Amino acid sequence: MSKYTEDDLEQELKTKEYKYGFYTEIESETFAKGLSEEVVIAISKKKNEPDWMTDWRLEAYRVWKTMKEPEWANVHYEKPKFQEIAYYSAPKAKPKLNSLDEVDPELLDTFKRLGISLDEQKKLANVAVDIVIDSVSVATTFKKSLGEKGIIFMPISEAIQEHPELVRKYLGTVIPTTDNFYAALNSAVFSDGSFCYIPKGVRCPMELSTYFRINEGGTGQFERTLVVADKGSYVSYLEGCTAPSRDENQLHAAVVELIAMDDAEIKYSTVQNWYPGNKEGKGGVYNFVTKRALCETNAKVSWTQVETGSAITWKYPSCILKGNNSVGEFYSIAVTNNHQQADTGTKMIHLGKNTRSTIISKGISAGKSQNSYRGLVQISPRAENARNFSQCDSLLMGNDCGAHTFPYIEVKNKTAQIEHEATTSKIGEEQLFYCNQRGIDTEKAIALIVNGFSKEVLNNLPMEFAVEAQKLLEISLEGSVG
Amino acid sequence: MLKIENLQASIDNKLILKGLNLEVKAGEVHAIMGPNGAGKSTLANIIAGKDDYEISSGTIELNGEDLSELAPEERAHNGVFLSFQYPVEIPGVSVTNFIKTAINQTRKAKGLEDMPAKEMLKMIREKSELLEIDRKFLSRSLNEGFSGGEKKRNEIFQMAMLEPKLAILDETDSGLDIDALRIVANGVNKLKSKDNAVIVITHYQRLLEYIVPDFVHVLYDGKIVKTGDASLALELEAKGYDWIKEELVQ
Ligand SMILES: Nc1ncnc2c1ncn2[C@@H]1O[C@H](COP(=O)(O)OP(=O)(O)OP(=O)(O)O)[C@@H](O)[C@H]1O
Ligand SMILES: [Mg+2]
């Protein structure tokens, strides 16, 4: 659990300050505000999509029009005005780039401040980065070496052009367009995202990583990610995001679909750091995400997420454990501070025999924030010998915040074994004094205690990501003392 | 080094320290003994800067500087170390990580860069050997599930790592087995120099056989009522505190 050892020490001492809160001025092209069939068609046209894709979007749009926003979550906010959002924004037509020298220096600077200098990453981190800025990918690296293994990793807009048969076969199969209000909206207007296909028996040699950014004021972001791991393959996928500070609500409704075929394994890690609004709760990103994985026989999917940003978070990465012996895992840290509200958790749907799931959720609330865990464990009648272990821990800082746990358990097979543990704790004066006495000031002491509390989840992230996540936790809780 | 004059302190309107005087010079070892509830830990906490106490009069100076204005971490940066009577647990934070943070925060306060990892590792190895600590132990969560004796040994490990000017050991001997007591005392002695000072709070003469004090004080009802040399500890062990009470009445 606390596996931080002397070896880790060396690693960690190398890391630098994490920087955030900046705004890039990149010329961009934005559609007029509002949503209609015409806009959906225009988006599709803009991207040169085949007819089947346009029709797919239109169908989603028509369904969306009949749907209502979900209201069951424990969050309170002013509803976005959907007709006042611009549904497409792309950096102005950029030529394809062959080397870093050709990249907009300002963009490069942004990457540097994000701590993801491509340069460095290419050499050191063994990470292929598909960077999504304002809905359109502007750089893709490492494509070649992945290509040699038959791995496809590209913006989904390109995949629709280059691998239409794959995209058409899998898109919307885990999360149907009609699944929920935000998934339908995303299906209609998604601008870009990533597509990843790992062929049979291939172990992806590097962590695949995408950095999403929201950049253009008033532009909704509708990312679409589809990861398909064919039989016996393995992939670790990283998704990280930061956003510049701004004083306007920004809607984000992403959809992520994962398909793990027989004996395949997908690790999907997210560090989310969108603008949470200012101290008074003004501004901030609304983050309504639908993430779901389908696990076939012996497959394993592991969701790990560190959520520190957004004014409102509504997010339940789920696993459908369809195949026998399939495994679903959910490791989550959700931090809320000031006026942030998060309603997040997971759904583990056990359909196959001997399916197993693990849920580790760590909620940290500070300021006047509200942090809810909402989890569903469902054991279907056919799921013989299904097992679930859930642990939900809450850490409170101060007296004005709230932590809530809503575990739903539906068991329709008597052989199921379900364990649920929950704890709530507060950072104690004695702990703080102990740290202070050792020369650690209160802010740093809180960061240390929070990191300790989150260890089980942090340990599940790839190393570089874990370090970044740790810094993020620290930044998110700055000024929460007292 | 440390100079306390006429210190009066209370908690929840209850007066605990009632005009306490104590002077500790560099290179000295002072033992403080006294019955339960006399105010020994209170004194230690106040020196370390715990802010639960109301200080109604008196002064505390460290090397001529008034301590009352300094936050606990600043006192630590100035070389004050307290080995707690009851060390707290911090789940998920390894001993290594904790001590690394403590050292680097202290360095930062002094305008120094983080200690190079190599140097830190070397120091960890040295100090854990000195105190005969299995290094696997250092990857465990701080004090979580530690036995009473392990907690105390870990306190002294931290002291060894931080190399304080003024170390206050609050009943560090309680809970240590005979071998551990020797090892810990030996460690403390090795760290002693003419530039630092140690205050040992204890109920037992045994520790003082290993860490030989220059002065032994009796803290009784919020005051230091008697000061002597090492032989006073022996006398207390033999006779208890009643005779002191009687002396006071006279
Ligand atoms: N929060 C508090 N409220 C009221 N009284 C307190 C509080 N904290 C400590 N005291 C009292 O202060 C007195 C001194 O306590 P202190 O812990 O300093 O004693 P001590 O000399 O260290 O005793 P021991 O040898 O048992 O460790 C005790 O009577 C104790 O009950
Ligand atoms: Mg005491």
From TrEMBL, chain A:
InterPro entries: Fe-S_cluster_assembly_SufBD, SUF_FeS_clus_asmbl_SufB, SUF_FeS_clus_asmbl_SufBD_core, SUF_FeS_clus_asmbl_SufBD_sf, SufBD_N. Residues 212-453 form the SUF system FeS cluster assembly SufBD core domain. It holds the Pfam family SufBD_N. One of its GO terms (biological process) is iron-sulfur cluster assembly. SUPFAM superfamilies: Stabilizer of iron transporter SufD. Residues 129-204 form the SUF system FeS cluster assembly SufBD N-terminal domain. Signal peptide: none annotated. Belongs to the iron-sulfur cluster assembly SufBD family. This is Fe-S cluster assembly protein SufB. It comes from Polaribacter irgensii 23-P.
Automatic annotation (TrEMBL), chain B:
One of its GO terms (molecular function) is ATP binding. Keywords: ATP-binding, Nucleotide-binding. InterPro entries: AAA+_ATPase, ABC_transporter-like_ATP-bd, FeS-cluster_ATPase_SufC, P-loop_NTPase. Pfam families: ABC_tran. Residues 2-246 form the ABC transporter domain. Belongs to the ABC transporter superfamily. Ycf16 family. This is ABC transporter, ATP-binding protein. It comes from Polaribacter irgensii 23-P.
